[in-house]
Input
Amino acid sequence: MEQKTSVFQKIWFWLIIAFFYLPIIYVVFFSFNKSKSLTKFTGFSLRWYQRMFESRPILEAIGYTVACAVIATVVSTIVGTITAIGLSKCRRVLRETINQVNNLPMLNPDIVTAIGFMLFFTSLRIQTSFWTMVLAHIAFCIPYVILSVTPKLRSLDPNMPEAAMDLGCTPMQALTKVIVPQIMPGIISGALVAFSMSFDDFVISLFTTGPGVTNISIYVYGNVKRVNPTINALSAILVFVITTILIIVNVVPMIKERRAARNVTASELESSIR
Amino acid sequence: MKSFSKMVYPYVLWAVIMIIMPMLLIVLYAFTVQGNSVLTFQFTLENFARFFSDDVFPIVMWRSLKMAFITTIICILIGYPTAYVIARNKPNKQAIMVLLITLPMWINMLVRTYAWRGILSHMHMSGEIKVYIGMVYNFLPFMILQIYTSLSKIDPALITAANDLGADSFQTFRRVIFPLSLSGIVSGITLVFLPAVSSFFIPKFLGGGRYVLIGNLIEDYFISTGDWNFGSAISLIMAIIILISMYITRRLDRQPAEQEDN
Output
């Protein structure tokens, strides 16, 4: 596939990138607007940021979003990893069935999964609250964790835990000292997926949250009808935080890799000198 | 090693309670009417009859399907060339280009759609076109990434072979590259069509309130009206239509492969 790209192709690509980034730049730009307008820039001001940090509902929404994402990530990563390990060792029929069932929330439209949860909670006469939302988040995150841990388990040498147990490890030690460290990259990427799914979720949260509990998405949804520039400030801060995290996540491994490569060449040099 | 297999059992119980039960409840609600208690419910087709005999509902359903279909087509037409351009670059450059495409996806969909509201308010266009822009914007990255993945998996030796055998670049594309990337298009269709049919905040943000899709209907029946039985019936109809269209799409991918086998 590798070939020189023409100027036309380069322009096409950058146009698409411009399309993707335009609204993000727009919203950050207008978050510094002096007036309420979303179309006319009248001057620089930080008043919407100030307004945002004084707004109780926004701060609460941020708090609920983060708390829910953290709890959902921790629980779904642990449960998902345990289940994935069990799945890799259990009978084929059971594994196929569980995989099919896990596909349901991933292939169903969000809104169908969401009303399923809503009907479920009310049928059991469970009053919806922050915790029903967390429960729903855990439920839809687990399949994604299983999905990202399973490939790592498949490439794991099955003799390793056996060897550990022959050498006197209990099954629990074999699990925590042999299996888990080896599938760690899969667990971490599963946790990242779970966190971002939960953090950005709107539809499932809307249907499973209790009265008075809103996350960021629900807050934006509820305030979109009025002109509310504090949302611009909130969006700009989200953009800023997420971009910083992504840059760190993406750049740090690159630097590490480069350093590792340098070390390798250094040690190679050393050994060749010897 | 056998003992590890026991680790599945808690999740089996969890999956029955948290995945299967909610789905069954939607079906149960769809086939009953309000006022039935759990013990004495009566089976009825009234909700479905009401949906199909109404003037509005089938039109909304049709409109949602048409909108999702056109969105998917636009995403293929824009996404394919984009993925193709990415795949033609050097591997390290490809990684950066893919990163540029994925970065905006990390920012909340509602926030990005809300931003489009501001941009599009400068322009005089119908609500329908605005909704299309919002849909394509939100779902195009999925299509690009799926097609790119399938393109990057193509063995370069196949292209060299095609060239050596006298195929010009267009023939190579039509006979070698395109058929091999079809699986990416099919999985891209799933990732675009599915959320596009059921989307309800995009039409609400950009359509100016007059543009109602099936997702908005479901939301209304659950959150405003409180007629959960009818809402469940609409969801079930939507889910079945989606299932059928997914089945047809999957076949698109399989057919050429089968012909090759023969």
